[in-house]
Amino acid sequence: MNAFTIALDSIWAHRLRSALTALGIVIGVFAVVTLTSLGSGVKSYVSGQFSSFGATLITVSPSLPSAHGKLAHHPFGGGPKQNFGNIPSTLTLGDATAIGALHAPSIAHVAPLVLLPITVSTSSTGSSGISATGTTAQYFRAEQLTFSHGSFKGQGVVLGASAAHTLFPQLKNPIGQKLYLGQSALSVTGVLNSASGLLSKTSNASVFVPIAAGLQIAGLHNISEIIVQASGNSQVNAAGNAITKVLSRRHPSGDFSVTKDTQILSTINNTLSTITTFLSGLAAISLLVGGIGIMNIMLVTVTERFREIGIRKALGARDSDILVQFLAESVLLSLLGGAVGVILSAIASQMIGQLAGFSAGLTFDAVALAVGFSLLVGIVFGVIPALRAARLMPAEALRTE
Amino acid sequence: MNGDASIPLIETHQLQRKYGRGDAAVAGLAGVDLTIHRGEMVALMGPSGSGKSTLMQILGLLDRPTSGSYRLSGSDISTLSGSQQAELRGRRIGFVFQGIHLLPRLSAIRNVELPMAYARFPASERKALAMHSLSRVGLNHLADRRPNQLSGGQAQRIAIARAVAPGPDLLLADEPTGALDRASGREVLALFQHLNADLGLTIILVTHDPFVGRHAQRIVELEDGRIIGDRAVDDRIQPEQPMEVHV
């Protein structure tokens, strides 16, 4: 006949009221656990997107000379990156060649990239809104882009998957078709498979030409950036150092920056963590409200059960026995609510994960947090009603007939 | 509390209990001197508001006096802490109330075990004592019944079994027959007389009913919080024999 048996019995005796009281905790725990689980689900989804190509990409981009030695942080990178316009590029094809000429074991592929400010169209006067990029064959290897038709060769142009669809909606295989870049007509030599990686999707809507031809057509001398793929995850830092070393010699003013995908990954992860924590914090407010609900009902319960308290005290219950009995009831109520919340949350994050296409299982952390929180809520909000019950003089309690 | 027989079980001096504060204070007890010895069966009588229930609650350690002294078995209860008082209530004092004060969610035997559970008796001893006590009131066959499956008289006898199970020195009964029909009431009163005669249990009956009072050996009358009469009962109603009670 311990406190928890009494508490369980009392909760069971008032099933509907107990269920409604615990509902606040159910909702609060459900919200906190679901958000935390979804947050970590999104996080591992993003990491997975990176690790499909190992987060081994390093981007060399132009920078202001004053940024020497600092690593610029692109909020999002990968694929053909934007030169944000206000920084004039001083990178050249020679820089890319110099990096390649290192033959460093940490470097697998080096690809110069130039964004061409010219129109892309199937006629000499039209425009399609599709961007043109000049690069080398190494780019496709570094970005793990594969060809559905043809290849990247000669003076030909390669189409991203959705660019091919936009430009030649009628054709299954547009190889040999003519495409105008500005006034120059080039023929299509290859089509890419659709890229699914989070950061390589931009390549779908681009067309690619050999970089020398591209520079000539657009009348440019400088390239936009250099994509380097390290030979493995552990080689990223060595590759980055090698690149910085060789470029520092060629650009003493330091007007370049070296950005690793791993940095982008950690930036995204930090951002996601912040958002998750913030949302979970908001959800925790509903736990607080649930706790107040429990306190309210426990106060009512104590008033209703004056007589029972009086009988128990007359039969020798100490103040502490009564305190523990009522505290056990609120803690148990809160824990039961928490358990139901966790179960609902497991179901919900499974469903959301399936709909959104990533796995969002319950994390141990989230469950531990929920259980700890509901325990805390039960104790904190149960103490006042339990103390009221415990301090009641038995004579006073028995007078209520 | 098992002390020597020459020390009265109960000894109060100028016991007062006031409700409220200052000028608005109402006196529940206005100075009560009362001595009760072990083995007595006493009826506290008086009209409602006379202070008889208040006195019983103070004697039973359910309430504290505003002033005056109360010695239980020779020791001053004002020196006892709350939990020491709770322990005395559980082990040494049994209560029987007017309404049926069984806990509705517990079976008869669980109710009887309750004071011993609070007094931290080992579970096996608790169970044995509870069964023994139930058979003493003749209801061991109803041990697993819930209170709502018992008649009023049966429930009150279960409450008496609960009160005497831990082996108390003092049994306090507040209008124990008030909610019962005449026949059940007489059964309960006879049970009290048996417990008093055979176990030497000291019993204090609180009642306004002269018929109930005549079952005691001594009647103490209260009015307005004071004792106005204290006399032996000449025309005592003796226990009926035989009874379906095994002492």
The proportion of residues forming helix of chain A, as a percent range, comes to 40-55%
Poorly predicted runs of chain B are none
Strand content of chain B: 25-35%
Largest sheet of chain B: 6 strands, mixed
**SS class of chain B:** alpha/beta
Structural class of chain A: alpha+beta
Account of the 3D structure:
The complex is a heterodimer of chains A (401) and B (247). With 401 residues, chain A is an alpha+beta fold. Chain A has 2 domains: 2-49 and 270-399, no CATH class; 56-260, no CATH class. Helices cover 54% and strands 15% of the residues of chain A. Chain A contains 12 helices and 11 strands. Chain A has helices spanning 3-13, 15-51, 93-101, 137-142, 161-167, 211-218, 236-250, 261-304, 306-314, 319-356, 364-391, 394-399; strands at residues 57-62, 107-116, 120-121, 131-135, 147-150, 157-159, 178-181, 184-192, 206-210, 225-230, 256-260. In chain A, strands 1, 2, 3, 4, 5, 6, 7, 8, 9, 10 and 11 form an 11-stranded mixed β-sheet that branches. The longest helix of chain A has 44 residues, at 261-304. The model of chain A is unreliable at 67-83 (pLDDT under 50). Chain B is of the alpha/beta class and 247 residues long. Helices cover 32% and strands 25% of the residues of chain B. Chain B has helices at residues 52-59, 82-92, 108-118, 123-136, 152-164, 182-199, 210-213; strands at residues 10-19, 26-36, 41-45, 67-72, 75-76, 93-96, 170-174, 202-207, 218-223, 226-232. The longest helix of chain B has 18 residues, at 182-199. The mean pLDDT of chain B is 89. Classes of the chains: A alpha+beta (401), B alpha/beta (247).
